[in-house]
Amino acid sequence: MPSLITDRNVRIIEVGPRDGLQNEKVSVATEVKAQFVRDLVAAGLREIEVTSFVHPKWVPQLADAGELLDLVLEPEGGRFSVLVPNEKGLDRAIEKRVGAIAVFTAASEEFVRRNINMSIAESLEVFGRVIDRYRSEVPTGFVRGYLSTVVECPFAGKVEPGIVADLTAKLLEMGCDEVSLGETIGVAVPSEVIEVAKVVEQVTNHSKVVWHFHDTRGTAIANVGAMLERGYRSFDSSAGGLGGCPYAPGAGGNLATEDLVYFAERNGMVTGSDLALIAAASLPVLEALGRPMMAKSQLAVRAACTSP
Question: How many CB atoms neighbour CB 18 within 10 A?
C-alpha cells in the first residue's frame, strides 16, 4: 500500500558534479567544477555527490578528485559524498576524511560485468569490505548504495522486481544507510516503477530509498510524480540535466534538478532551493562541455523570453 507520509519536504541529492560529468570526454577545469559545487551550495542544495575516487585510466574526467575536494567547503548541515569503487578508492576517501561515500552495483549480472568486471555477488563482497572499513575509520560517516538497472538492463532486458528487492535488502544489511534505485536507461513509465516500489516496500521503508530517474524518453518527471504519491521524498538529480545516456547518444540522461524543483514546488512541495540559481550554476559547465541546457523548465523560460 502507498505510504501515508504527509511530509511536504522533498530531499534532493545533486549528482551533477560526479554522475553528470563522469562520461564526458571534454575535460572540465578543476576550478570550474569547484565553482559549480559552490554555486549549487549557494542555490540551497545541501547534499551533493562531488566526485569519485576511481582510477583516472577509467574516468579521466574525475582524475582531479582529491584536488577538487580541497577546493570546496561542505555546507553547514549538509553533506558532500564521493563514489568509492573499491578499497583503493576508499583509502583516498579516508585520507580526505570524506563524510559520506557511495558504492555501486546493479540488478543485472550483465550490466555489472560490463561496468566493473565482476558478478553481482563479487561486487557485494568487495563493497562489504569497503563499508566495514569505512565504518571503522569514519564511525559517523554516511554510506549510500547505488543499485542500477532496477527496471530494465540495456544488455539483458527486463529485470525482475524481486531481484531489486533482494539486493536492496542486502545493501542495507551490509551497512548502507540508504539505497538509490536507478532507472538507468530511461525507459520506464510509472506503472513499471510502481511495480518495483511495491516489492521493495516489502523489505524496507520509504526513508531508506532514493529514486534515480533518467529522462531519456521524457518519463522521469512522471515517475517522480508516481513516487511522490506513494510517499517517497528523496530523489537524485543533476543540474542542467548533465549526464547524457550512453545508450542513447544525443538524448537526455539524468533528470534535471531544475525540472525536479519546478515539479515539486509547483505541486506544493518544499525543496529549500532556488531554481534560478541552480540553472545559473550549471551554465559554465555546460558551456565548457559545449552542451545545451537539458532542463525542460529552463528551455520553456528561455523560449518565453525570446518570443516575439
Answer: 27
Q: Indicate if 305 belongs to the active site.
A: no
Give the residue from 9, 11, 31, 19 showing the smallest Cα distance to 234: 11
For 1-38, the pLDDT digits (tens) are 344 456 899 999 999 999 999 999 999 999 999 999 99
| Amino acid identity for residue 80 in this structure | F
* Cell numbers given for 37: 559545487
The partner residues of 143 in beta bridges, in order of sequence, read: 101
Q: Find the Cα–Cα–Cα–Cα dihedral 268, 286, 247, 50, rounded to 10°.
A: -70
CB half-sphere exposure, 24, CA atoms < 13 A:
27
- For cell 583516498, the residue is 92
For residue 165, what are the contacts with CB-CB under 8 A and spacing of at least 6?
Answer: 199, 200, 202, 203
Name the active-site residue from 153, 176, 245, 305.
245
Q: Tell me, what DSSP letter sits at residue 18? A: I
What is the H or E stretch that residue 211 is in?
strand 209-213
* pLDDT 10s digits, 262-282: 999 999 999 999 999 999 999
Contact 134, 87 (CB under 8 A): no
Helices of type H across the chain = 30-42, 65-71, 87-95, 109-116, 120-137, 161-174, 190-200, 220-229, 257-266, 275-289, 296-306
Fold of 11-306: TIM Barrel (3.20.20)
